[in-house]
Every structure is written in structure tokens, then in C-alpha cells.
Design goal:
Blueprint lengths: L25 H9 L19 H11 L3 H6 L5 H10 L15 H12 L9 E7 L3 H9 L7 E7 L5 H10 L5 E5 L4 H12 L4 E4 L5 E2 L3 H6 L8 E10 L7 E2 L1 H12 L3 H10 L6 E4 H7 L12 H10 L3 E13 L10 H20 L9 H12 L1 H13 L12 H11 L4 E2 L2
Parallel strand pairs: 1-2, 1-4, 2-3, 6-9, 7-10
Antiparallel strand pairs: 4-8, 5-9, 6-8
Helix pairs in contact: 2-4, 2-5, 10-11, 14-15, 15-16
Length: 426
């Protein structure tokens, strides 16, 4: 009932200042904090040596049953939780004074009552949002997600500069289905992995903090709520962050989806499985990800490519929708738009791994054009950097000419898109 048997020891840092990592109850307290069963005193302290009152016990039990949103609407802690506990039967046939120190016998009776009560509507969707230093855009993202009891929103913050300000912005929204976790620096892959470990929903949906969902997204997700697929693919659109003006980003994934919906066969399905290597605009079955233990690479950039292609090629069944559920934005200064020597070299390493992977799967036609990476290295950092790339490819036994075989359709698509001034394939 408490979901603690399946929970792993927390690695998101100390939740409370007075609960050090060596404390005997550290893992249990951290897990309950992450699940929002406990909040502490609101000042960063848990009161680890304080006696527990009945109203605190009730708050935990009501939260475990999933009735916290109802209790908050009924007045919050403690009155709202006590009211809900009385209504659903947690306190049935038990006499107590809410502010009194709880005794074990009475708490045991409350727990017995609780284990026989039905859990409120289960979490269906866990939205995992890695965040770093863009709180205003994060708020826009959150506002595109409905406040529903079947939606869990997990913000995994990759050590942003102003934690207090970000927490206050999130708190000002008054959302009861949002969890904020402030992490040690570990890049976006680490943040996503932590978010996955905390996900309780049937489906996991990844979203970048500077992007947002379309107005119909969750209605479209709901159509596939009971699907037996491991992954459901949707279309996306793109816009400039500041103006909202439409632009083109990753058009190849929408083209692959459209081709599959017109002609469903192995070739067009492979177009999705090997070309759509971004985590957004998809629903991943939580049990599928846990079964295979898929994790993002915890590296500087391109951390999502191998995760997604591994998921794509291991899925027993997939579904593909024509619905547009996600808006990816183009923002100066974002990781994908900035030029950084080490990020580029990390991306080249991922391109090599991806190309070797698709070759091993018998699909060399999907290899990434490594020479284009070498060309960009030369353009921005000169001959010495380009030679660094060539040496890295040689050391990994792959030719820099890998992936140069264009199909006529790819050339035409690339040419048509290049004429659009708002095109960016990244």
C-alpha cells in the first residue's frame, strides 16, 4: 500500500537538514518526502526527534491513499485531512484528540482501517521535466499540464542557480500534483533518470522545461490510456520561444509518422524506430522501462539518443497517432542551440555509438553522417579539432564517411526544408 517495497534508496540528496544520510530512517523519510506523504515543518526541517501527533499520522495515511488533493481543497493541513480521514474511514471507531501525541495502539488501529480502504484514483501519467535555469518557461510548461489527480508532475532540477525563487514560482501556482526535486549537478540525463525513478504513473511522458503541451494533448493521451503498447508516438509542432511564431525543428520525425500512417509496413515503421530519437511527444509504458532498466546517458549533451533508440527497438508493440501533442521551442542559449566544444565532441561520440548500433541491428542506412560533425568541428574550432574527431572515429573502428548514403527522398526533403528560413533540424 505504501509503495515502499518497490522504492529504492533515494539519491536526490538530503530532503531535510536534520535527517543526515547516516540516520537509520534516512531512506524511508526521503522516499516519503518524494512521494509527498510528508512535508516537514516547511523550513527545511523534519523534526526527526519530535513526537508524532495524531493529525500528522492522519496526514500521512490520507496522502498514502491518494486523497491529498481532496484534503487540500477541504482546507488543507490539518483540518482538511482530518475531515477526509473521518469521511473515508481511516478514523472509524477510534477516539483521539488531533493534537495529542500519538500512541502505538491507536496508530495501529488507524493503519488497520487504512489498509482495508480503496486507494483513490491511481496515477496514470507521470510527466518528467528536467529543468535548469529557466523558471519562467518552466511555469509556462506547467500551465500546459492539467491539474488532475491522475497526473503526477515531477520536476528534476539540475542544480539551478536560484532554488528559492524557483520553488516560490512553483508554489505560487498552487498545484497539488507537482513535485520539485533539487539535485546535485548531473546534466539532463541524470535529472531524467531521477524523474523516472520517482514516477508512479502507468505512463511516463518526458517534457523539456522550455517546451509545452498543446491544448488537446491530454485528451489525445487519454485515447491511448488503456493501450497495450509499450510506446505511443505522436506528432509535434515547433515555435520560437519569444514570439510564438512557428518554425521547423525535427521535421523528419513528423514525416516518418505521416509515411507510416499512409503505408503501414516494416520499412515505414523502421523510419520511426530509427529516426525518432527524441524523448518527447511519446508515451512510454512505465513497466516497460522498468523491465529493461533503460536509463539516459548522464553526459553533457545528446543524452537521449541511445535511450530512445534502445526503447524503440525493444518495444514489443507500438502505436502511432496523427495527433499533435507537443510544441518544441527554439531558444537562443539552450543546450541544442549553443555552440560548445565539449558538447559537440560528446555529441560526436553519441553519433558513433548510434551508427554502430543501427549497423548491428542490420540497418546501416540509418547511420548518422559523421563527416558533417567533422565539418562543424573544423568550422568552429579549426583543423586541430577536426583531426581530434577523425582520430576518435579511427580509435572506435568506424569510418567518418559512415552515413553518407542519401536516398533521393532524403535529399529532396532536406532541400525543401533548407529553403525555409525558420528551419532548424536540431
Amino acid at each position: 500500500m505504501l509503495h515502499l517495497r518497490q522504492a529504492k534508496p533515494s539519491n536526490v540528496g538530503v530532503s531535510f537538514y536534520d535527517v543526515p544520510t547516516e540516520h537509520w530512517a534516512y531512506n524511508a523519510i526521503n522516499i516519503c518526502k518524494q512521494a509527498k506523504y510528508i512535508n516537514g515543518y516547511g523550513n527545511g526541517y523534519y523534526g526527526v526527534d519530535d513526537k508524532v501527533t495524531y493529525e500528522q499520522v492522519i496526514k500521512m495515511l490520507v496522502s498514502v491513499l491518494g486523497y491529498a488533493p481532496v484534503a487540500e481543497k477541504e482546507g488543507g493541513y490539518p483540518e482538511g485531512y482530518i475531515k477526509v480521514a473521518n469521511e473515508i474511514g481511516v478514523t472509524q471507531n477510534i477516539s483521539f484528540t488531533s493534537t495529542d501525541i500519538a500512541i502505538r495502539e491507536t496508530v495501529a488501529k488507524m493503519i488497520i482501517n487504512t489498509v482495508h480502504l480503496p486507494v483513490m484514483e491511481q496515477i496514470v501519467y507521470s510527466i518528467v521535466i528536467p529543468h535548469y535555469n529557466c523558471p519562467d518557461l518552466l511555469v509556462r510548461c506547467l500551465n500546459s499540464i492539467p491539474e488532475q489527480t491522475d497526473i503526477q508532475v515531477i520536476i528534476a532540477d539540475d542544480y539551478s542557480d536560484n532554488r528559492e525563487y524557483i520553488e516560490s514560482r512553483i508554489s505560487s501556482l498552487g498545484r497539488t500534483n507537482v513535485e520539485y526535486h533539487y539535485l546535485d549537478k548531473g546534466w539532463a540525463g541524470h535529472a531524467r533518470n531521477i524523474g523516472m525513478s520517482l514516477a508512479r504513473g502507468k505512463w511516463i511522458i518526458f517534457c523539456d522545461a522550455d517546451d509545452y503541451f498543446t491544448s488537446s494533448a491530454f485528451s489525445d493521451f487519454h485515447r491511448y490510456k488503456d493501450s497495450d503498447a509499450d510506446i505511443v508516438y505522436f506528432k509535434h509542432n515547433a515555435a520560437y520561444t519569444d514570439s510564438g511564431k512557428p518554425c521547423l525543428r525535427f521535421p523528419i520525425r513528423n514525416e516518418a509518422i505521416e509515411e507510416y500512417l499512409i503505408k503501414r509496413n516494416e520499412k515505414t515503421l523502421n523510419g520511426i524506430l530509427y529516426r525518432d530519437v527524441v524523448p518527447w511527444a511519446k508515451m512510454f509504458r512505465n513497466s516497460f522501462l522498468k523491465r529493461y532498466g533503460f536509463l539516459y546517458d548522464e553526459i553533457r549533451s545528446n543524452e537521449d539518443v541511445m535511450f530512445v533508440v534502445s526503447c524503440n527497438t525493444h518495444a514489443s508493440r507500438v502505436e502511432v497517432s496523427k495527433s499533435i501533442v507537443y510544441t518544441i521551442t527554439m531558444r537562443p542559449g539552450s543546450l541544442t542551440m549553443s555552440v560548445n566544444r565539449e558538447n559537440m565532441f560528446t555529441g560526436f561520440g553519441v553519433a558513433i555509438r548510434y551508427s554502430k548500433f543501427v549497423k548491428s541491428m542490420g540497418h546501416p542506412e540509418y547511420c548518422i553522417r559523421l563527416l558533417s560533425h567533422v565539418r562543424l568541428a573544423y568550422k568552429y574550432y579549426g583543423l586541430k579539432e577536426a583531426l581530434r574527431y577523425i582520430k576518435d572515429a579511427n580509435n572506435k573502428n568506424i569510418s567518418i564517411f559512415s552515413g553518407l548514403k542519401f536516398t533521393i527522398k532524403e535529399l529532396i526533403s532536406k532541400y525543401n526544408n533548407s529553403k525555409n528560413p525558420d528551419y532548424y533540424n536540431g
